[in-house]
User: Fold these one by one.
Assistant:
Number 1:
Amino acid sequence: MRNIIQLALAGLLSVSTIAVAAESSPEALRIGYQKGSIGMVLAKSHQLLEKRYPQTKISWVEFPAGPQMLEALNVGSIDLGSTGDIPPIFAQAAGADLVYVGVEPPKPKAEVILVPENSPIKTVADLKGHKVAFQKGSSSHNLLLRALRQAGLKFTDIQPTYLTPADARAAFQQGNVDAWAIWDPYYSAALLQGGVRVLKDGTDLNQTGSFYLAARPYAEKNGAFIQGVLATFSEADALTRSQREQSIALLAKTMGLPTPVIASYLDHRPPTTIKPVNAEVAALQQQTADLFYENRLMPKKVDIRQRIWQPTQLEGKQL
């Protein structure tokens, strides 16, 4: 079995090497990642980048969340990172010179608003006046804002309770909050534990997927190299389908979660190929930034187009 996996990985590397134009790679690449970043975690575990770019020193730095990662990116501690849709908006508002270099497809089934199974809350409109826990400035913050707007509610109609995922889970289980907006794998863990009901997921809310960001000088100097790195992350993510059981076992060990939680997490994710940020994605991200500004959650407006890095070819409409 090990030989089969090694051959599969070798095949992925050889195909991608042909697909991306060759260029001299930089001396170093410092990558910021989170445990939930499937493609990055698998690429790191299988050393795909180290094998593809042996002349480049690849280093990995783990972060608990997107805001801390983008702060490190802004001060020059890392070169490339991946976060949800909200942290880069706040980073731009704070003046960080970061650029969007890629985006994953949306994962509407991997982010939800949960309520207790026996809760009288049946619709998003029923959240009016209730306590909702979520991580401030996260993609779940965006999910909640969009769901409230769709239901005809304002952010001020609920009682927001800003908590980290771990603290929010405890508050939810103890009955100290009425609902919890959260993403995977926390969602899958709560679902498998039982006693919860999905009030709303991201379906029909027009959210983007996770973004990949780089320091502008690094992106401008190493364009083709970055495209090759992102292609490698996509190839690593594909292993969750071609080598599902092995990937589940590896991710469970890396994330410190039971294998059923990882399996559920993967079931909520569509095939994930990283693509350039085109005009449609930029427009959606601009809508999100405007939504946060309108709800007085941001200090000023931002123009997302100023932070979109464009390789030679973009899929979809040009910006």
Number 2:
Amino acid sequence: MGDKGSNIKSKLPSRHVSVGPKSAPHRSMYYAMGLTEEEIYQPFIGVATTWNESAPCNITLGRQAQAVKIGVKEKLGTPREFTTITVTDGIAMGHEAMKA
């Protein structure tokens, strides 16, 4: 079972946490997160989103990330969503940097 995904992921960074005996602790974490054996051995694809509730323009980004994840799954990848920082005009309005 340990080298099951080695052909598919031989050059992908996610092989370091999903393929081989040394990655057993990592795989147990993924199982605990609800991933199946098949999903663990597929390529992991990061889906970045700046979704948040601080401005109307960011509210729909969570739904867009879900649509991207569906597309990744359809192409036999395993999507892993993560968030990142965003600037919100409504909060930054009037800030010195906006007056430049």
Number 3:
Amino acid sequence: MGNGINKVLPDLYLGNFKDARDREQLARNNITHILSVHECAAPMLPEMTYLCLTATDIPSQDLTQHFKESITFMHECRLKGEGCLVHCLAGVSRSVTLVIAYIMTLTGLGWQDALNAVRVVRPCANPNLGFQRQLQEFEDTQAEEFREWFQMTYKDNPFNDTAEILKLLGRLP
């Protein structure tokens, strides 16, 4: 699945297990941090900084427990001007779910808009139905709290992420 590493936002990329070992692609995209989320997530390249989360791609897997840690990892990497690759095995469900939660927290958009934006750059993006339910529940019950936490923690966001996502959605020129 996937077609190599796909840029979602400046310094934020989605990919699959193979991409996470492709030193040429990683270097070309200035990727220094890798968020791995799959059954056997473990550091593979000694020169990279990792966040490894063990999770299966089944609807009953709770990914929301990893949202805050994942959001922090992605954002702090970007603040340093370094690239972050988020991957699972296929780069379709688990990794996409974590990136959607990040986009929701940054922009205030709902999960479906965030998913549609991701699909513009990574058409294979398709969280399983359980993860979609978790994203809906996150939107309904936790996203506002996460946005407040994010704003208190990081103050001003130096990125123009909302505009970037709206451009992907075709809502801004």
